[in-house]
Write a structure and sequence with these properties.
Layout lengths: L25 H14 L3 E5 L7 E4 L3 H4 L4 H6 L3 H5 L5 H5 L5 H4 L1 E9 L5 E12 L5 E10 L1 H85 L3 H15 L1 H33 L7 E3 L1 H11 L1 H4 L3 E6 L6 E3 L1 H18 L4 E10 L2 E8 L6 H4 L19 H11 L3 E7 L3 E9 L10
Parallel strand pairs: 7-9
Antiparallel strand pairs: 1-2, 1-5, 3-4, 4-5, 6-8, 9-10, 10-12, 11-12
Helix pairs in contact: 7-8, 7-9, 9-10, 10-12, 12-14
EC number: 2.7.13.3
Keywords: ATP-binding, Nucleotide-binding, Phosphoprotein
Protein name: histidine kinase
Length: about 450
C-alpha cells in the first residue's frame, strides 16, 4: 500500500492540510511532529499497560496502511486483539505479559485490514513507566512486512527446490558411480573368468590323472597280493614285485602325484585369492566410512585387473610407509581400478605401470604412472569432464575419471596429472588421513 506523497518544500496558501506552518513556534513544532508522525511508514500507537491493552492513540497513517480510521481503532477496546489472525493470536497472548518483565517485546503476525485480507506486520512494543516505576503506557510501532514475508516464502520455496535438485543430483551421481563400477566389472568379467577357469581347468585335469593313477596303484596292490599268494619263494617274489613295479612305473607315479597335488592346491589357492580380491575390491557389506589400508586396496584391485594388464605391461610396485586412513574403501578401489585400466589401455605392448605410495604429515599419496601414449595438451584440461573420452566408441563411458575426481574430492583430496605425448602419464592421488567431511573413526 502506497503512502500519499506530500510536498516538503516551503508551503503556500494552498498547501496540504497536514503541511507544517512557516513559523518556528511550539504550535508549529507540534504540527510538524504530527505531520511526520502521520507520514512515517510505521503506524505508531499507544495502549493501556493492563487488561486488554486497549488502544489510546493511533497515528493517522493507519488509514493508509490498514484502511481504518484511527478513531475507530481507539473506540473499540478489543480492536487490536480482534484483528490478529486466529492462528497467530495464541502465541502473542501467551507471552504478552513478559513485557512487564523485559520492558519490550516484538512480534510478527497477520493483521486483518479493512477489505478483509491480511497483512503481515512487525509489531515492536515498549513499556513506559512513570517516575515511580509504575507502568504508564505501552508504545507500539506497526510496520507492514508483507512483501518481505512474500520474498522469504519465495526464497524458502526456491531453497526447497534446490535441496530437491541437489538430492536428485546426488542420487544421479550415485547411480552413475554404480553404473561405472558395473561397467568396469563387466569389462573385466571375461578376464576374471579366464583367470578362474585356468586353475580350475588344470585342477580338473590333474584330478582326472590322479583318478587314473589311483586305479593303477590299486591294480599294483592287487597284483602284489596275488603274487604273494602264488609264489611263496622269496627271491622269486621279489623279482615278481620288481617286475610289476617297473611295468606300472610306480616311481614316476609317486613323484607325479606329489606335483599334481601341489599344483592343484596352488590352483585352488589362486581361485580363492581371486574371489577374495573381488570381495576386497567391492568391500561387500561395507558402505560406511572405515579405517583401511590403501596398500591392501591397491593389491586387491591389481588382482582384479591382472588379466587386463599382464599381456601388455609389467607392474612395478614401490610402496612406501603408509598409515591407515579413514575412507570409503570400495570407492577408492574404484578410483585405483579406473587409473590402472586407463594406464593399461594407454600402452600398446611391453610397457611399464608403476605404483608409488608415500605420506607427508597428515596426507598420503598414491601415484600411478605408465609408459603409454600420453595425453595431448589440449585434452589435459578436459579429462575430468563427465562423458569426455578420447577412446573409440564402445571402449569407454567417459565417466571413469570424472567419477574418480568426485570420489577423491568427497574425501577432501585432489588428483594431479602430468603427461607427455609418447612418453606416458602420471596420476597422483592426494588424500588426507582423516577427511574433514567424514564422521569420527569408530
Amino acid at each position: 500500500m502506497q503512502f500519499e506523497d506530500f510536498d516538503l518544500s516551503t508551503p503556500d496558501t494552498g498547501r496540504h492540510a497536514g503541511a507544517a506552518p512557516d513559523a518556528d513556534t511550539p504550535a508549529a513544532t507540534a504540527v510538524r511532529l504530527q505531520y511526520l508522525l502521520d507520514n512515517t511508514p510505521s503506524i505508531i500507537y499507544c495502549t493501556v499497560p493492563s487488561g486488554d491493552f486497549k488502544m489510546t492513540f493511533v497515528s493517522n497513517n493507519a488509514l493508509n496502511v490498514l484502511g481504518y480510521q484511527p478513531e475507530e481503532m481507539v473506540a473499540d477496546p478489543n480492536f487490536w486483539f480482534d484483528h490478529i489472525h486466529p492462528d497467530d493470536a495464541p502465541g502473542i497472548f501467551s507471552s504478552l505479559a513478559q513485557i512487564f518483565v523485559e520492558g519490550a517485546r516484538a512480534y510478527e503476525y497477520r493483521f486483518r485490514v479493512h477489505d478483509g485480507s491480511y497483512l503481515w506486520m512487525h509489531d515492536s512494543l515498549r513499556l513506559v513507566r512513570d517516575e515511580h516505576g509504575v507502568p504508564f503506557e505501552v508504545i507500539g510501532s506497526l510496520t507492514d512486512i508483507t512483501e518481505r514475508k512474500r520474498m522469504e516464502a519465495m526464497l524458502q520455496a526456491r531453497g526447497e527446490e534446490q535441496q530437491l535438485l541437489i538430492s536428485k543430483l546426488q542420487e544421479a551421481h550415485d547411480q552413475l558411480l554404480q553404473s561405472e563400477k558395473m561397467a568396469s566389472i563387466g569389462q573385466l568379467a571375461a578376464g576374471i573368468a579366464h583367470e578362474i577357469n585356468n586353475p580350475i581347468g588344470f585342477v580338473n585335469s590333474n584330478m582326472s590323472s590322479l583318478q587314473g593313477y589311483v586305479g593303477t596303484l590299486f591294480g599294483v596292490i592287487g597284483q602284489y597280493e596275488e603274487a604273494m599268494r602264488e609264489t611263496p619263494d622269496g627271491p622269486a617274489l621279489a623279482a615278481r614285485v620288481a617286475q610289476v613295479r617297473d611295468q606300472a612305473d610306480l616311481a614316476f607315479l609317486q613323484d607325479d602325484m606329489v606335483d599334481l597335488v601341489r599344483e592343484s592346491m596352488d590352483g585352488l589357492k589362486r581361485v580363492r585369492d581371486i574371489v577374495q580380491a573381488l570381495k576386497d575390491f567391492s568391500h561387500v557389506g561395507e558402505t560406511d566410512w572405515q579405517v583401511a589400508s590403501l596398500h591392501a586396496g591397491l593389491d586387491s584391485t591389481l588382482n582384479i585387473v591382472a588379466n587386463e594388464l599382464k599381456y601388455k605391461a609389467r607392474i612395478e610396485k614401490h610402496y612406501g610407509e603408509l598409515p591407515q586412513i579413514l575412507c570409503l574403501a570400495s570407492q577408492l578401489n574404484q578410483v585405483f581400478m579406473n587409473l590402472l585400466v586407463n594406464a593399461g589401455q594407454a600402452i600398446s605392448s611391453d610397457g611399464v605401470i608403476s605404483i608409488r605410495t608415500g605420506h607427508a604429515g597428515d596426507w598420503v599419496w598414491v601415484e600411478i604412472g605408465d609408459t603409454g601414449a600420453g595425453i595431448a595438451p589440449e585434452h589435459l584440461n578436459r579429462i575430468f569432464e563427465p562423458f569426455f573420452t578420447t577412446k573409440a566408441v564402445g571402449s569407454g563411458t567417459g565417466l571413469g575419471l570424472s567419477l574418480s575426481y568426485g570420489i577423491v574430492n568427497k574425501h577432501g583430496g585432489r588428483i594431479e596429472v602430468a603427461s607427455e605425448v609418447g612418453r606416458g602419464t602420471r596420476f597422483t592421488v592426494h588424500l588426507p588421513v582423516t577427511p574433514p567431511a567424514a564422521p569420527p573413526a569408530p
